Amino acid sequence: MHTADTTPHSDAWACPARKRARVICLASLAASLALYVMSPFMTLWTIAGAVSNHDMVALGHTINWSSLDASIKEQVLNGLNIGQVNEVSDELPEFGSSFAANIVSNAVDTRVTQDNLGKVVDQAMASSPAPINSGTVFSAVSHALVRFTAANSFEAQVVLPGHENETPLRVQLRIERWQWKLTRVDFPTAVHRPVMEASVIQHKA
Questions:
Q1: Is residue 203 part of a domain?
Q2: CB atoms closer than 10 angstroms to residue 112
Q3: Residue of 146, 157, 145 whose CA lies nearest to 189
Q4: What is the spatial distance between Cα 49 and Cα 168, in angstroms, rounded to a whole number?
Q5: Nearest 5°: phi and psi at 192?
Q6: What's the CA angle centered on 105, arms 99 and 106, to 5 degrees?
Q7: How, if at all, do strands 153-158 and 169-176 pair?
Q8: Of 40, 37, 79, which is closest to residue 62 (Cα–Cα)?
Q9: Superkingdom, according to UniProt (predicted)?
Q10: Quick check: is 202 in a domain?
Q11: Which of 32, 31, 44, 52 lies closest to 146 in space, CA to CA?
């Protein structure tokens, strides 16, 4: 009889306990999801703050150096149009490509380092026709186009002041060891307009 009297009370207590456990689990899941979604934005904001304050130590902590070096080398080599040169000239094309790639690789490895990061950022800022300060940096980042390209990859496209007629600065972040790291930066380049568009405009004129 004593057991029969306590069973209803035990069930009555267990039901609210299970509800509380579900609520706690759902709340934890929602908080984790919100933190995951906001974390790349926080890293992007940290990068913008480090650039505007010229805090190269903080900026260096957000960078995956090997990935960033590889992306810069790729852009420099593409800008040299080595493939087009090799198609025109058959004289030692492999040697020419290898020689140019080695020069670019050595130059990037020498100049894009933690010690020289401040100079690299200063040169990038100096290339802008308009003065860039902390206000313009944060304004540009706040208007960036952002998206998750994968579960562990995030991309932001930022239109830099003075480069409105060029492609946006594209920044790629990836999760590495539970932290978002800057792995790639695609610098603004001139937008090539189709030749047909120019010819049609001249014809109408």
A1: no
A2: 17
A3: 157
A4: 19
A5: -85, 115
A6: 90
A7: antiparallel
A8: 40
A9: Bacteria
A10: no
A11: 44
In this prediction, the residues of the chain whose per-residue pLDDT falls under 50 are: 1, 82-89, 92, 197-200, 203-204
Provide the strand spans (E) within the chain: 145-150, 153-158, 169-176, 179-186
Q: Mind listing the pLDDT tens digit for each residue in 58-96?
A: 888 999 988 888 888 888 777 665 444 444 445 545 555
Q: List the structure tokens of 27.
A: 């709340």
Identify the sign of the CA torsion 54, 59, 60, 63: negative
Kindly state whether residue 157 falls inside one of the protein's structural domains. yes
Tally of domains in the chain? 1
Q: 190: which strand partners?
A: 166
Range of the domain at 60: 3-195
Q: Under DSSP, is residue 19 helix (H, G, I), strand (E, B) or coil?
A: helix
Question: Which residue's entry shows tokens 């010229």?
Answer: 54
The amino acid at 141: V
Residue 61 lies in a domain: yes
- Helix 93-111 and helix 65-80, axial crossing angle in degrees, nearest 10: 140
